[in-house]
Amino acid sequence: MIEEALKIRAGLVDEAIPKFLPITPPDELYYAMRHLLDAGGKRLRPSALLLAAEAVGGRAENMLPAAVAVELVHNFTLIHDDIMDEADIRRGLATVHKKWGVPRAIIAGDALYSKAFEILSCARSEPSQIAESIELLSKTCTDICEGQWMDMNFQIRKDVAEQEYIRMVEKKTAVLFAAAMKIGAILSGANRDVSRALWDFGCRTGVGFQIYDDVIDLITPEEILGKAQGGDIIEGKRTLIVIHALSKGATIDALGKSNATRSEISAALSILKESGSIDYAMNRAVSIVEAGKSALRILPDSEAKSILIGLADYMIERKY
Amino acid sequence: MIEEALKIRAGLVDEAIPKFLPITPPDELYYAMRHLLDAGGKRLRPSALLLAAEAVGGRAENMLPAAVAVELVHNFTLIHDDIMDEADIRRGLATVHKKWGVPRAIIAGDALYSKAFEILSCARSEPSQIAESIELLSKTCTDICEGQWMDMNFQIRKDVAEQEYIRMVEKKTAVLFAAAMKIGAILSGANRDVSRALWDFGCRTGVGFQIYDDVIDLITPEEILGKAQGGDIIEGKRTLIVIHALSKGATIDALGKSNATRSEISAALSILKESGSIDYAMNRAVSIVEAGKSALRILPDSEAKSILIGLADYMIERKY
């Protein structure tokens, strides 16, 4: 039932993307901007925005500009992150910089960024609600940059603490979920407490989502994941799993070793399993998401609220 | 008198930048964002915004958030452009990617981008004026990306026509001048005709500015310019000068030759002088700026209007 409900919202977003981001001259730029968007994706952030709006009595149809804006911001970060990570594959396709080169990928990302604000500023809502949403989205984008910067610093540090990691993940990943939900609430005229509760829900479930995502990156085979298994290991990422294992005195030879073989990656995986670090991260993800769900108590019961609860559970149960 | 008047506005912007963009954690990110900003610069775009506001009866002090936002957008484009152009030096300093590496320079640019919208969304104006300004600034940023994309395409084409070049320059450079002035007008409550006139003035003078800038890149020695002379030639840029020379049948051996020697660049310069292409570009810049100035007829006489006229002249008379 949850998957079906999410699919309906994702379908609305899928339909809206080409309407708000048509191919116009210079066409090739817009093809580059649409490359990852057209490859699909779960549309979790825009779906969360639609559901948040519905949960406070708003109408999903009126939220499509904002929903598309949030998905564009997400895709902009993917394009630039892939350049930084020198990633070749995303969603089973060549990454934008692999296909168009780094300079054009930088521009395609930048253009998605500005289109997001352009589309949001044309939403059918009160100017004050639009101004508030844009302020939130821009602050969120700054947070994402700060989180990405912290993440890069962590890769050259050995002593990252769990709390620092959580703070980084909040900025890099969770605030966009949080902002999506709060924007859905703001544009639907929700009051401050309700908007804030949806932000809290989005932020906590977003952290849980990312911790669980790091687990998935480790344990999911390439043919399902659409990108190389254990990529975070060879990139040297200090995920919660790695932080836990290192704190238990584990030695992970493949960590940060960009030319690690498949068997070295397998050995690293075994060590992370044996140290209990994968289970530890899974449990942390679950408890953080549970805390997020409790923030929704302020909302009256509704179908949308149930789906949001289901979305939170989905975030830590999905297989990829 | 004009230079003094511009210096006063630039000084206001210089003071406002650290207020609106303080160094906060992660500090190093903010140092990277401030690197080019702190190196100075003429602040022409934010000064134009302040003057446009003054010319329609607004107060410069109230426009500082918007002025800083526009300067941040300009600096964001410089950081990303330098990555794409693989430029080492800007304003006499190492470029951001030279100092911090490409991934961090991408983030620093992205963060300036979001800060610009964040600062503009907090301007002390009516929500409807803020929403309109943000819509304009975001559309302008999309235009800049389109212009940059066109510029890159032109470098691998031999048949760029003058009109295409002007269209590219409008998007890549002029629309930010135009938007700066229109935002100054919008936030000061100017009517639609006046706002539009200031946009026209900014767009035309911006095109003139860029054509003249291409001339300066050619004829100014490195020690004054702060970057290598003739960089546009070895990058293969189809500037108006090059387009004119090629249309006259000139052969420019150093064009697009990244390892061209100083004497090859000098030879290219002589050819561009002899073909009359440098004079042609100068004259085009002058006539476009004159057309821009005539757009200001709609405004009542004022000190700010006189300074704007002077700014237009300055754009095609400055030495670097």
From TrEMBL, chains A, B:
Q: Which Pfam families match?
A: polyprenyl_synt (PF00348)
Listed A to Z, the keywords are:
Magnesium, Metal-binding, Transferase
Q: Name one GO biological process term.
A: isoprenoid biosynthetic process
- Entries under PROSITE patterns matching the protein: POLYPRENYL_SYNTHASE_1
**Out of the domains of life, which is the source?**
Archaea
Q: Which SUPFAM superfamilies match?
A: Terpenoid synthases
Cofactor(s), names only, from the UniProt record: Mg(2+)
* Record bears the keyword Transferase: yes
Q: Tell me, what is one Gene Ontology molecular-function annotation carried by this entry? A: (2E,6E)-farnesyl diphosphate synthase activity
Q: What is its EC number?
A: 2.5.1.10, 2.5.1.29
Q: Where is the signal peptide?
A: none
PANTHER family named in the record? GERANYLGERANYL PYROPHOSPHATE SYNTHASE (PTHR12001), SHORT CHAIN ISOPRENYL DIPHOSPHATE SYNTHASE (PTHR12001:SF85)
Please report which protein family the annotation says this sequence is part of: Belongs to the FPP/GGPP synthase family.
Name of this protein: Geranylgeranyl pyrophosphate synthase
Q: Which organism does this record belong to?
A: Candidatus Methanoperedens nitratireducens
